[in-house]
Structures are given as structure tokens and as C-alpha cells.
Specification:
Elements (H helix, E strand, L loop, with lengths): L1 H25 L20 E5 L4 E3 L5 E3 L1 E4 L18 E3 L9 E3 L1 H19 L4 E4 L7 E3 L1 E5 L3 E4 L6 E4 L8 E5 L5 E4 L5 E4 L7 E5 L1 E4 L4 E8 L3 E3 L4 E8 L4 E3 L3 E3 L6 E2 L4 E2 L15 H28 L1
Parallel strand pairs: 1-4, 1-19, 2-20, 3-21, 4-5, 5-6, 7-9, 8-11, 9-12, 10-13, 11-14, 12-15, 13-16, 15-17, 16-18, 17-19, 18-20, 19-21
Antiparallel strand pairs: 22-23
């Protein structure tokens, strides 16, 4: 009888050990889902406002711009801002524009505008793309590339805030595409874009034809517009207003160039890409299976040993 129990016990151990070994061969190694890379703005990254033609205006000259300002190819005479409004540098293509802070640097503006064009094209080619309703207010989105169900993204205060959830990953990227001709982006009066769980303003991008950000809106992200951008009274923007061809118009607004924690602020490129932590990988992900499978096998060995001991005592 003891020999029979011993034989069964040895067979059980052999099976358990075999499963233990196979678990390391068959179960996939830890993997993470490929994430969207941020959009490299190059020399355009330092600009809170970068405009094409004919001008940059601010009714009443009461807006506050935290970052650089540039106008190209239009001349500096079209920059309707005061030096006291801008914490960065005001760049022009010629020797006109606000003094004493204006700096003439046509080559830099050409590079910045070319980098903006490249960023606009890069955003347009990102995949996979998820189509979402035109009204973004009242929704929560995770990192990804989104296109509008129509020609316009809308954020309405009455619908609620648009919430961008980083899911604990500060390098999460949000790209919104409305490349059709038309409004592109219409941010309603008093509407809000909120960031939670590590999402950062420097990794939010809006590629549109034109954009309108209305009174007292609280907006997040860099607007990459083919044409013009208009912002009305009292809006707060944690991002950039970058217009390839058109103008940028302001009325008593605050624009702040965002800088990501852990990013190279010179080009908005992450220094490193964090790997999702264990709790975020999911119960049945490769990492958890590699950890769980050996534990299951060890538990099986323990149960077999207890059974064998009980039979031995009997």
C-alpha cells in the first residue's frame, strides 16, 4: 500500500513539476501595449502663440502670454501685443514689432513654422483612430487618437467637462483630429477640459482647420490649426495656439505653454517611457500569469503532499 501511495505521489510531483516548467515556456513574457508617442513640435514647442498671416491681435491688450510669440511670414508690424504681456520672447521676421522685447529672427521662425507643419502632418497620420461623437463634453477618454463624427469637435459647458484620463501614465498622449474644412474645434463658453490620473497638457493635441475658444473656457492642449484661431474674453489655455496660415485673435485671455514632467522641454519629447506598474497590467496579462502560474503549481505540490501524508497515516 505504501509503495502504491509513494508511486502515486511521485507521479503527482512529476506532473506538477512538468506544469511548472511548461508554464515558463508557454506563458508569454511580460508585454506592454504600444503607446502613442507624443507629437514632436521641434522649435515650435517654446511658442505659446505662433501665427502665419496677417496678424496676432488682443483687444484691450490685457491678455497674459506665458511663452514665446512669433509671426511669420507676416511682418512684425502685425504683432498687436505689448512686451509687458509676454513672459517669453516676441519674434518677428523683420525689424518691426513691439519694443524693446521684440527679437528679429526670421530663420528661427521659418524652422518653427516648418516644424509646426511636420507636427500637423504627423498628427494626421497617427493610427489607430477612434471616432467619437461631435460633443465631447461630459465624456471621459483615455490615451489615443480620436476623430469627430462630423467636421467639428464641440465642448459645451452644459454637457459637462471633457475629462482626459492618463490611467497613471504621465506619458499618455491624446490626439484629436478634425481635418475637414470648417470650424474644427468649438469650445463653448464656460466649458472645461480636465486632466486626471497623470494626464499632462503637453501631451494633448488638437489638429483642426480652425478653432474657436469662447468666453471663460478652461482649455487644455496644443491647437495645431491649418488656418485661424480665435479666443474670446477670459479664457484660460494650458497649451499652445499654433496657426500655420491664419491669424490668432485674443481678448483678455491667459495662455501658458505647458512643460511635461520628465520631458525635454526643448522639443516636447519624453526622456523615457514609463512601463505600466503591476496593478495596471490586468489579472490575465503576461506579467501576472508568469507570477501566478508558479504559485499555483507550488500550491498543487503542497496539496499532493498533504494528501499523501494523510493516506500514509491511514
Amino acid at each position: 500500500m505504501r509503495r502504491l501511495i509513494s508511486t502515486k505521489f511521485k507521479s503527482g510531483i512529476f506532473i506538477a513539476v512538468s506544469v511548472f516548467v511548461i508554464s515558463f515556456i508557454v506563458i508569454p513574457s511580460p508585454t506592454t501595449r504600444a503607446a502613442q508617442a507624443t507629437i514632436d513640435l521641434g522649435a515650435a514647442a517654446s511658442f505659446a502663440i505662433l501665427s502665419g498671416t496677417p496678424n496676432i491681435t488682443d483687444a484691450g491688450n490685457t491678455s497674459v502670454i506665458n511663452g514665446d510669440v512669433g509671426l511669420s511670414p507676416a511682418t512684425g508690424a502685425g504683432i498687436g501685443l505689448l512686451c509687458s504681456q509676454v513672459t517669453g520672447t516676441i519674434y518677428s521676421v523683420d525689424a518691426t514689432g513691439p519694443l524693446p522685447c521684440r527679437v528679429t529672427n526670421g530663420p528661427l521662425l521659418v524652422i518653427a513654422k516648418n516644424n509646426l507643419t511636420n507636427a500637423y502632418t504627423t498628427a494626421a497620420n497617427r493610427i489607430p483612430v477612434t471616432t467619437v461623437p461631435t460633443e465631447l463634453g461630459g465624456t471621459t477618454l483615455v490615451s489615443g487618437v480620436y476623430s469627430a463624427a462630423s467636421t467639428t469637435f464641440g465642448i459645451t459647458a452644459g454637457a459637462g467637462a471633457l475629462t482626459l484620463n492618463g490611467q497613471g501614465d504621465p506619458s499618455s498622449v491624446f490626439i484629436f483630429e478634425a481635418g475637414f474644412s470648417g470650424t474644427g474645434l468649438n469650445v463653448g463658453p464656460g466649458s472645461t477640459v480636465s486632466l486626471i490620473n497623470g494626464a499632462q497638457a503637453c501631451n494633448v493635441f488638437w489638429r483642426v482647420d480652425t478653432a474657436s475658444i469662447n468666453t471663460t473656457a478652461s482649455f487644455v492642449g496644443s491647437v495645431l490649426a491649418l488656418n485661424s484661431i480665435s479666443v474670446t474674453n477670459g479664457a484660460t489655455i494650458n497649451g499652445r495656439l499654433l496657426a500655420r496660415n491664419g491669424s490668432v485673435t485674443l481678448v483678455n485671455d491667459t495662455i501658458t505653454t505647458p512643460i511635461c514632467a520628465g520631458n525635454d522641454s526643448s522639443n516636447n519629447t519624453p526622456v523615457s517611457t514609463p512601463t505600466p506598474s503591476f496593478p495596471n497590467t490586468g489579472i490575465f496579462s503576461g506579467l501576472n500569469l508568469v507570477v501566478i502560474a508558479p504559485l499555483v503549481v507550488l500550491a498543487t505540490l503542497f496539496v499532493l503532499a498533504v494528501i499523501a501524508r494523510k493516506k500514509h497515516l491511514l
